[in-house]
């Protein structure tokens, strides 16, 4: 019996690679070393995993708070930098935005055929005495008549003074809300948006700047709106595939000049010089 036990242990020793202690097994020095080595490897692996998790958590926090972002266009490359604002940012102090070197600000005026931004009228009035060039934009609804939406914008904004301190109007055409689940066919989208833009042109003498994403523009708008000025939303990289005038590169801006500091500000740049930017002033 003793001999058989020895043979059994010999076979086990040949193939056995323990990674934990077995109370019923007698260990030699090599086996103990193997167990300790495997334990060290597991500890190192866990430490590396925890380190990666901590780095990803910190990175997520920095992205969420806007302290870092995927894009960081410099003022040297893009001297004309601007923002979009709505009632979410509260009251606007345009003098503070001047100190932040903001060149332009677009204020949300309307959405769909009846919605009006609650802070638009006050912000529109207070921006008159600022060096920050301003204008208004409309959030286009895929489920309302285009002309009705344009009339909502016109009634809310009124006359855009032709004194050089206002910029061309803009319309944001992006999927949100119910449009994320259901979107009308391309022909309907194009037809209603053309109706909107034509009505704006009849009132103000200019077509609005179209604010949209690169993919949405190419899929729905490219063939019918190729002559329009484009304000492209691309949060991950510089839009190089199409000809753009403005670029919304981050939704996580933090600036002095807004009363509701809990909400972030969308940051944009103009693709050109300060002299080029005069083409966007409504005259």
Structure description:
The chain is of the alpha/beta class. The chain has two domains: 2-63, no CATH class; 71-280, TIM Barrel (Alpha-Beta Barrel). It has seven helices and nine strands. An eight-stranded mixed beta barrel has the order 1-2-4-5-6-7-8-9. β5 (170-172), α6 and β6 (209-213) form a beta-alpha-beta unit. α5 packs parallel to α6 (186-204). The protein starts with a helix and ends in a 13-residue tail after the last strand. Residues 1-16 have low confidence and may be disordered.
The radius of gyration over CA amounts to: 30 Å
How much of the residues is beta strand, in percent? 15-25%
What global shape is seen? elongated
Low-confidence stretches: 1-16
CA distance, first residue to last residue: 107 Å
Q: Quickly count the helices.
A: 7
Mean pLDDT: 85
Give me the strand/helix succession: HHEHEEHEHEHEHEEE
Question: What's the β-strand tally?
Answer: 9
Q: Give the class from helix and strand content and strand pairing.
A: alpha/beta
| Major beta sheet, strand line-up | 1-2-4-5-6-7-8-9
